[in-house]
């Protein structure tokens, strides 16, 4: 549409309310593909996409101009920029000229079909936007989705283990192996490995804690989960499961619908634990100053299938740094005790 091409780089400030009673938010208003895109200037994240043909001015002739995405919608947008207001009116004028009338039925049907494709494209976000949503998600958003996934996993395994002394140690272990904002959850089940969730939140089963003489095996699986997450972002996996509609909700509203990840925990548990590339994983062991052989032997006691991790162990001849003290390891081993 010529009118859209003319204004495709036009931007203006505006004030957006999710409902008429909601707190106003400053946004940047710009033209998209037959849409108005409202973006938070602090995060550069879109908060809403409005279909241009449906945009309705609620106060013709008055300033600032007040718009809604449709007659029955509760969202409102205030704009004072004369050029943006004029552009919206011109686009509406072009659309009106192309509405079906006498002798124009064919062109009208083509316009309706084109608009239908635009609405469908906005509603069902392309797979590229799913990846975009994962790329730009802030830490707080990732952490919230990680907690949602953990709740889904707990439906199958039972709630995460918790005892005061053990909780302090699992936080210490998370900080030691991953980082200051990381968390580790111990579930009362057998996982035969570790799962990295968005957050960063890592889940292990009590099989990596109870019955293990030292914490090196558990530490190795936790490091393995971090390496696997770099190769395949756990948030991207979750959004692919949630689907384009839920991801569009995340982009515009800032959170996933409550039911978006229903069943995802069970699906994760049914998949084999991912095994990262040996070279990448050895880098994690080197930085953490932990021997890779205990982890390798836990995967294959004979060492035949994990020979690369054993022979290239960065601490095969050097002294590794202890993962936890004997006292802390004993406290963590009791975390699932009732």
Strand-residue proportion:
15-25%
Taking all Cα atoms into account, the compactness measure Rg is 27 Å
Supply the number of structural domains: 2
Order of helices and strands: HEEEEEEEHHHHHEEEHHHHHHHH
Output the structural class.
alpha+beta
* N→C terminal distance: 68 Å
- What is the spatial order of strands in the main beta sheet? 4-3-2-1-7-6-5
Helix tally equals: 14
Mean pLDDT across all amino acids: 86
Largest sheet: 7 strands, antiparallel
Q: What's the total number of strands? A: 10
Instruction: Estimate percent helicity.
Output: 40-55%
Overall morphology: elongated
Uncertain runs are none
Transmembrane segments: 108-129
Keywords: Membrane, Transmembrane, Transmembrane helix
Can I get a quick summary?
By secondary structure, the protein is α+β, with helices and mostly antiparallel strands. Helices cover 46% and strands 15% of the residues.
Structure, explained:
This protein is of the alpha+beta class and 338 residues long. The chain folds into 2 domains: 2-123, Pleckstrin-homology domain (PH domain)/Phosphotyrosine-binding domain (PTB) (PH-domain like), CATH 2.30.29.30; 131-333, no CATH class. Helices cover 46% and strands 15% of the residues. It has helices spanning 2-6, 82-97, 105-123, 127-136, 139-157, 164-177, 216-231, 234-242, 244-253, 264-270, 278-288, 293-299, 307-311, 326-333; strands at 11-17, 25-31, 35-40, 45-51, 56-57, 65-68, 76-79, 183-187, 194-197, 201-205. The strands form 2 sheets. It has a 7-stranded antiparallel β-sheet with strand order 4-3-2-1-7-6-5. A 3-stranded mixed β-sheet has the order 8-10-9. Helix 6 packs across helix 14, helix 7 (216-231) crosses helix 11 (278-288) and helix 7 (216-231) crosses helix 12 (293-299). The longest helix is centred in the middle third of the chain and has 19 residues, at 105-123. It is elongated. The chain crosses the membrane at residues 108-129.
